[in-house]
Amino acid sequence: MRKADGRVLSQTKSAAVNPLKSSQPLGAAFAFLGVDGAMPLFHGSQGCTSFALVLFVRHFKETIPLQTTAMDEVATILGGADHLEEAILNLKTRTKPKLIGVCTTALVETRGEDCASDIATIKLKRAEELAGTEVVLANTPDFDGAIEEGWAKAVTSMIEGITRPGARARKPKKKEKKKIAILPGWNLTVADIEHLREMVEAFGLEPVILPDVSGSLDGTVPDRWVPTTYGGTHVEDIRGLGTAVQCIAVGEHMRRPAEVLHRLTGVPYVLFQSLTGLKSVDRFVSLLTVISGAAVPAKVRRRRAQLQDALLDGHFHFGGKKIAIAAEPDQLYQLATFFTGMGSEIAAAVTTTDASKILEKVPAESVQIGDLGDLERLAAGADLLVTHSHGRQAAERLGIPLMRVGFPVFDRLGSQHKLTILYQGTRDLIFEVANIFQANQHAPTPEALDPFRNREMPDELRSSPLARH
């Protein structure tokens, strides 16, 4: 864990009050859910899986394929390798997944089980039975990190376990589209990823997005029962990532997966710490222009012009406003830079872990590692609270409007279809926040407009000739 600097304040409480973060295994399962025909498997007790499943279902309002090795007391003492093997073989027989993503929990990590060795043994011993199914492992103990690290570890494990190693195999033929590998951060919504794909395709490029939750968690209802994920990145596309001409990673936590892909295949990568805001999107569009050799499409120029107009219309509502944000590090950076770019001030910044270097760039006086109790303590006097649905009680107690972002959002519909990136997403964010401010305006009182209105006049002034007139 990175040592916190003076601006990043460590958590000192013994217990979390209204927890902010979700666990690493949940983040890993989230990433595996973005692969077609996948089945996330929690290696641990049944309770760990049940809690994650409830959060997923409440957020997405969809059927979520998620299984567990269901270790009992005996397995906890003697070891869970047999439970893991049995679970993998049962899943293969009953659901025929193309990918089984094993996510370890605190139970097996605390016990110190060598899950990588166990899985290697299972794959070797059961090679014939597991033919056609990839099995990858993400070491994700609940007691460390949060959803961001879990997501990144799962993507890294898929690249390490599935992508063909070696230098880029070939150059695209003249009539063949250039392939772009895109590694989105966990905080990009279904709508964000769909919009990102459309933007890349507008330049005549072929995007391969890993993970692609826009295909599997977008509300599409199949015409038959499918026990695994339905839609998302194909395993064959993961295997062939080395043929991409460029990798684009979104979010600091996706640096590690991009580095692994580069090391294995030689594909160069560019990291965008955020794709929200005019400057960041301009840089992204310029990169696509260079890769494709094509001019910026007219519809993209139009979206940029609309954002410029929104910036002019909206900045009056943002100026001087105090914003309190609680989110994972990369999403905290994304939102904080958006608000400060519009002229607001970050009054409180709370996040889940100090492991990310992006916290050093968050435009706030300090960043508190903590929970929603810390946010409530620091947000007094703010104009807007920005966090997930568990922040609604704090917003009500403080009398501050709440903007719901991140995971989970369970008391509003359609959070996965909210656009937050590129020109159109930035424009929509401006309108959403400006409308919240307009809906919560407080008429100024006479005392606020004239602070001297009821002030007592000093005796020497009251007795002067001027006071009598």
Automatic annotation (TrEMBL):
Residues 450-462 have a biased composition (Basic and acidic residues). The keyword DNA damage does not apply. One of its GO terms (molecular function) is nitrogenase activity. Pathway: Cofactor biosynthesis; Fe-Mo cofactor biosynthesis. Residues 23-437 form the Nitrogenase/oxidoreductase component domain. Pfam families: Oxidored_nitro. GO terms for biological process: protein-containing complex assembly. It comes from the Bacteria. This protein may play a role in the biosynthesis of the prosthetic group of nitrogenase (FeMo cofactor). Belongs to the NifD/NifK/NifE/NifN family. NCBIfam families: nifN (TIGR01285). This is Nitrogenase iron-molybdenum cofactor biosynthesis protein NifN. It comes from Allomesorhizobium camelthorni. The gene is nifN.
